[in-house]
Amino acid sequence: MGSANPYSSRSTESPLEQRLAADRARALVLTPVSRETEARLDRYISLLQTWQAKTNLVSPTTLGTLWSRHVSDSLQLLAFAPVAKVWVDFGSGGGFPGLVLACALADKPGAVVHLIERNGKKASFLREAARVTGAAAVIHLGDVKDTVDRLTGPIDCVTARAVAPLHQLLALAEPLIKKGAKALFLKGQDIEAELTEATKYWKIEPRLHSSLTGGQGWIVELDRIERRNLSHSDDGIPR
Known about the structure:
Layout: H1 15-30, H2 35-52, H3 66-75, E1 86-90, H4 98-104, E2 112-117, H5 120-133, E3 137-141, H6 144-150, E4 157-161, H7 166-178, E5 182-187, H8 191-198, E6 202-204, E7 207-210, E8 218-222, E9 225-227
Parallel strand pairs: 1-2, 1-4, 2-3, 4-5
Antiparallel strand pairs: 5-8, 6-9, 7-8
């Protein structure tokens, strides 16, 4: 049984609160989680709403659909790596998908999500969100490439959402994928163009999955990548 809806107990709700309550209910049907995870996600979304007033964490147009547009979009990745424990999220921003995954994995022994964010304000938010929720998260302030180079130990999955074009993500993720990590990248309607560009630089056999949240979202799943030309620079652009 899920946790109590934090929006339903209010005697007078604003239209935005009503919309968000309905969106929460839809999202948790789409991507059900444990009662404990629901509670963590509720605290996370509440904090995000507070910080949004001073730090742009998500597009204002999505505030009424935070759960379906952002939370469920993130949670669906778990189904593609059900036994994965150690995750790395590039450019975590407001916490999607990294902080959401860390909330869901908080009760899994040995689980941790490394969230990499170069923006100081957003990194501060992520640290506070991890503290408030008890999420299984480690926050890294810095560039993705430099942080990846410092990570040690096995990595099971690498994720990213709205960070960079696919060919550049592959360059950033290459060290992790070559060590056995699975890549799960959330992409939008331009996926075909991104794949076309990526194949100029990389030999890949991607598996594409339509997003559960509808729209024109896609998940790009990759287990192996290989550079087509070793003269390409680390960002996937020819020297």
